[in-house]
Amino acid sequence: MKTPQFSPKQRRVLEWWREEGYDAVICDGAVRSGKTFALSVSFFLWAMSCFQRQSFALCAASINAVRRTMLAQARPVMEALGFHWEETVSRNELTLRGGGRENRFYLYGGRDEGSAASIQGVTLAGALLDEAALMPRSFVEQACARCSVQGGKLWFSCNPEGLEHWFYREWICEAEKKRALYLRFAMEDNPALNPATRERYERMFHGAFYRRYVLGEWTAAEGLVYDFFDESGLAEAPGGPFKRWRISCDYGTRNPASFGLWGEKDGVWYRTQEYYYDARAAGRQKTDGEYAQELKRLAGENPVEAVIVDPSAASFMETLRREGWTVRRADNRVLEGIRRTAEALRTGKVVICKQCRAAAREFGLYRWEDGGSRDRVHKEHDHAMDDIRYFVMSLEGGGSAARYVERDIF
């Protein structure tokens, strides 16, 4: 393989564990700044240099993310250095051998509060947590607690979130007390990132997202959630056949219900039609069966491959399954969903068509809570916003927008 180039900050990451006085390293900052690549290679080199027949944890929001980021980036380097790499996919574990040493690495996904149970009981010499700010606190703390082998260390990477985020307050602000080396990365710290790509990212984000993902600052959200989007961003639905179809649903009984019909054409997903019903305004609630009929009318003759539904709407999902629909439970990570939706909209991977008036209205009303210090959205005018967010999150691993996000951000 071609020998990778490392920036001075990446080299510091590669060598920090040789220094006295640190129990952990924290790398945050801009997207695409080379944090994960440097951390992953350094983590493996440290483990294989300092330990024999010990166990380690590689953690991300999902096990697929561990493989897609840490393993995919580090493997060519480690194999070029002469290490033998043996992954047992069925058990989510990796064995690395070289230089007369052998160590085992376990893969964990810290997706929700229940994930902490998956890492209980194991004794670790070290843990690498990629995108730690996206993981539940219970999972991160459980991973830290498992590192009880003498000489063990903790490794963290994350993109900035809000100033009230627990990881910022308890790790970033307390780095010195926790004996953690804190390094903030900029895009310039990634030698593999060409200037054209850097300029594209600078154009892509706006407002609080620009400060977080381009400048690498922990900052409060403010104002409109999608402050870059207005009615000028609405488009005509393209003519001709669409390749695939999906429907996304935010379910409501007394609150409004919002359904979106999405078609893919030339790698772009278009919200071509929608259904929006406000029971309070209409003076009558609808049943699950009535909503199922409305969904059927929205789909028309289009072969809908999946319906992505509000995860709290268990009875509605069961009604749809009984009627023969393929139903997926929506991923309801709010801040991550907003980030991905913003990027998909700005890059044109997801397009809202002019017929979708309810969505257009909510884009102009959907706001962060006053002050933005808690990084929470105001729970009003958010029903089309939720169903759009569910749809974008459903594209992970199978849709153009999510492939773009996961490929270009580490």
Commentary on this structure:
This protein is α/β, with parallel strands linked by helices and 410 residues long. The chain contains 15 helices and 14 strands. It has helices at 8-15, 35-50, 63-80, 116-119, 137-145, 166-172, 195-204, 208-213, 279-282, 288-299, 314-322, 334-346, 357-363, 383-394, 400-408; strands at residues 24-29, 55-60, 84-88, 93-98, 101-109, 126-129, 153-158, 180-185, 244-250, 257-265, 268-277, 304-309, 327-329, 350-352. The strands form 2 sheets. The protein has an 8-stranded mixed β-sheet, with helices on both faces. Strand 10 (257-265) and strand 11 form a beta hairpin. The radius of gyration is 23 Å and the shape is elongated. The two termini are 21 Å apart.
Could you give a short description of this structure?
The chain has helices at residues 8-15, 35-50, 63-80, 116-119, 137-145, 166-172, 195-204, 208-213, 279-282, 288-299, 314-322, 334-346, 357-363, 383-394, 400-408, and strands at residues 24-29, 55-60, 84-88, 93-98, 101-109, 126-129, 153-158, 180-185, 244-250, 257-265, 268-277, 304-309, 327-329, 350-352.
